[in-house]
Amino acid sequence: TVAVVLFTADLRLRDHPPLHAALRSADEVVPLFVLDPGIHAAGFDAPNRRAFLADCLRDLDASLRRRGGRLVLRSGPVVREVCAVAAACGAAEVHMAAGVTAYAHRREERLRKELGAVGAALRVHEAVITALAPGAVTPAGSDHYGVFTPYLRRWSQETLRRPLAAPRAVRVPEGVRGEPPPGRAGVSGTSPGLPPGGETAGRDRLARWSRSGGMAAYEDRHDDLAGDATSRLSPYLHFGTVSAAETVHRAREQGGPGAEAFVRQLCWRDFHHQVLAARPEASWRDYRTRDDRWRGEDDAAEDIAAWRDGRTGYPIVDAAMRQLRHEGWMHNRARLLTASFLTKTLYVDWRIGARHFLDLLVDGDIVNNQLNWQWAAGTGTDTRPHRVLNPTVQAKRFDPRGAYVRRWVPELADVDAGRIHEPWRLPEDRRDALGYPDPVVGLAEGLTRFRRARGRE
Length: 457
Ligand code: FAD
Hints:
Mean pLDDT: 97
Helix content: 40-55%
Number of helices: 20
CATH class of the largest domain: Mainly Alpha
Distance between the termini: 68 Å
Strand content: 5-15%
CATH superfamily of the largest domain: DNA Cyclobutane Dipyrimidine Photolyase, subunit A, domain 3
Number of domains: 3
Bound molecules: flavin-adenine dinucleotide
Oligomer: single chain
Structural class: mainly alpha
CATH topology of the largest domain: DNA Cyclobutane Dipyrimidine Photolyase, subunit A, domain 3
Radius of gyration: 23 Å
Number of strands: 5
C-alpha cells in the first residue's frame, strides 16, 4: 500500500505526526511538497521567505535521501497536484497537518472532496504546526480564547504529546515524477543578512542558543534590543522545521524562569493560531474593536514612506525598520513599537504595516503577523486597546545606551547616549551636520489625533 504525506508548514522529519502515521499504515510513502502559484499570485511568497523555503526543501530532501527516500516536489495548484500524485501511485491515504488560515481551510475542504474521486482518503493531523491543537481548550460559551492570560493558564495545564523520533527509513514508490528542489541562489531581492533555512539549521540554532545560556537568560534579557538575546527561532517555527511541541518539551526539561518565560512566548503563538482558526477573517478584518477612520496611502503617503524606509526622525523606529530590511527579521519589542508608531502615532491603517512586514519578514506569517498587528493597533486581543507606546520612553528603557540605534542608524553613530534617542534636542548646527531627518510628527500631535479619532478626548 502507498500513502502520500503532504508537507506544508511542517518541513521536518522529527516529531512529524502525519509522516509517522503514514509510515505505520503503508509500505511506501510519497513525501510531497507543492509549490502553488496561487501563493505567488496572492503576493505571499516574498523573496526572503522564498529563499528560506528553498533551503528548507533542500534540507528535507537530503534528510529523506539519507533514509533511502526523496522529496517529491511539484509545481501547480495544490489540490490538482496532490490528486494527480495520489492517483499515479494508487495511494489509499493522504496525510497532512491541519492549518488555520482561510486558505488552509479551503485547501482541506477541496482535498477531502477531490481525493474521494481518486479513491484516497484525507487524514488531517492536529497539533503538528502548533504545540496544542487550536480548539483543544475553550472557555465556557465560546469557541476560542480572545484574551491571552486565561488561555495561558489553561494551556499550561494541558499535557502535550511526546515528541516523535525521525523515521529510520522511508521507501518511496518508483516512478513518481517530481522536480529538483529550487536553490536559494535563484531568488533575487533578498535581505543580505538572511539566516540559513532547514531542519538541520533550526535544530542547530535551538541547541546552540540553549547551550550558550540563551534560554536560561531569556527572562532577563529578551527585551534588550542591542543584546539580541532571543532565540531567533521564528522562521524555523514558521516553516515548521522545528516542532513547537518539541521545543516546549525541551524548554520544560531545562526548566527555570528563563525557560518558563520562553514557553510563554511559544504559548502566544498557539494563542494566535486558535484565534485565527476560529475567526479566519481576522487576518485582514478588525477582530474586536472596529476602527474605520485610519489614514491610508492617499492621506498619509509621505509618512508611510518615511516609516517603511526608516527615516521618521525617531531613531528607535528607524533602527528597527532598517533592521527589518537588512535582515528580514526584527526584534519583538521593535515590532511592537514600530507597529504602535505607525498605527497610533501616525494613525495609519494596520493593514498597510502588516503588508510591509509580510513583504520582508522571513518569519512573515498570516497568523502571528496579522494578530500581533491587530494587538498593537488596538483592534485585536489587547485588553487595553487605546494604550500608546511612546517610542522615546521605550527607546530609553530597552536601548539605554543607544547601541541598537548606533548599529542601524550610522548617521547617529557619534551621538552620545544622553541625546541619541532625541536628536531633535541637539543644538541646531550639530543637528544639521548629522543628515538625519526631523520627526515626521510631534508625539503630542500624534497622540491628540489618535485619541480624537477614537473618541477618547
Ligand atoms: P523568541 O522571543 O525567542 O520567542 C520564541 C518563539 O515564540 C518565537 O520564535 C515565536 O514563534 C513565538 N513568539 C514570540 N513572541 C510571539 C508573539 N508575540 N506572537 C506569536 N508568537 C510569538 N512572529 C512570527 O513568527 N511571524 C510574524 O509574522 C510576526 N509578526 C509580528 C508582527 C508584530 C507587529 C509583532 C508585534 C510581533 C510579530 N511576531 C511575529 C511575533 C514576534 O515578534 C516574533 O515571533 C519574534 O520576535 C521572533 O523572534 P524570536 O524567534 O527570537 O522570538
